[in-house]
Amino acid sequence: MSIRDWPEGERPREKLLQRGPQALSDAELLAIFLRTGVAGKSAVDLARELVARFGGLRGLLRADEAQFCAAKGLGQAKFVQLQAVLEIARRHLAETLDQPAGLRDPGQARSYLRARLRDLDHEVFAALFLDTQHRVLGFEVLARGTLNAASVYPREVVKAALRHNAGALIFAHNHPSGVAEPSEADRSLTRRLKDALALVDIRTLDHFVVGEGEPVSFAERGWL
C-alpha cells in the first residue's frame, strides 16, 4: 500500500505537521528524507529496512559513501544530501553557542561537543575558548591520538588560550570505546591544565568526556 493510501494522521509528513517531529519514529523521520520507496515498498518500509540494516539512525549517519550507496534505495545523491543535512545541524549547534550574552547553561556546550566528537574513531582532545563573559571565541582540536591515547601538553594549551585571548576554557575529549567514564589519567591531566592556565588568569570551567551516552562533566562531578 502506498503511503498516500494511509490515513492522513499516519502519514509521516502530515503526522509531523500535526504532532511535531518528536512524535515520529526513526523510520518515519528517515522516510521523509527518502521521499520515495522502491518497487513494492513504501518509503517507510524502506526506511525500516535501512534502520535495521545499519543498526539505527546513528549507524546510517556514520556510514561512509561506499557503505551507504551499497544499500538498496540509496545512492550518491542521497549520500550528499544527508551529509549536507548533518553539516547544517552541526553549524546550527555552533551558532547556538555564538550568542552575545554568552553560554547560558552547560547543556549548550554539552550538545555541541557531543555532536563534534562522539562519532570519531580516534581520540581527540579539544577546547572551547571563551572570553570573560563566556562568549565563544573558538573551538580547536589540541591533540589527536590513537584509539586510547592523546598527548596533551599544558604549555601548548596555554599558548593556544593566549592566542585566542581567552578568559576561560571548556575542555572535551572523546572515548572511541564508547565508555565515557573518565580515567585517573584524565583527571590528572585536567588538574595539570587547570593549574597551568591559572598562572595566566585563565579559568577552566569544565571538561566533558564524550562517549556513547551523555557526556560526563567534571564540573558536575565536583572535580574542578
Tag the structure with descriptive keywords.
10 helices; about 15% strand; 5-stranded mixed sheet; alpha+beta; 5 strands; elongated; about 220 residues
What does this structure look like?
By secondary structure, the protein is of the alpha+beta class. The protein has helices at 12-19, 26-34, 43-54, 57-62, 65-69, 76-97, 106-117, 154-163, 184-198, 218-221, and strands spanning 124-130, 136-144, 168-174, 203-210, 216-217. A five-stranded mixed β-sheet has the order 2-1-3-4-5, sandwiched between helices. Helix 2 crosses helix 3 (43-54). The radius of gyration is 21 Å and the shape is elongated. The model has no long low-confidence stretch (mean pLDDT 86).
Count of β-strands: 5
| Global morphology | elongated
Structural class: alpha+beta
> How would a crystallographer describe the biggest sheet?
5 strands, mixed
Q: Kindly, what is the distance between the CA atoms of the first and last residues, rounded to a whole number of angstroms?
A: 58 Å
Biggest sheet: strand arrangement: 2-1-3-4-5
Strand content: 5-15%
The DSSP helix count reads 10
Uncertain runs = none
> For the CA atoms, what is the radius of gyration?
21 Å
Give helix and strand order, one letter per element, not per position.
HHHHHHHEEHEHEEH
Mean pLDDT score = 86
Q: Helix content range of the residues, please? A: 40-55%
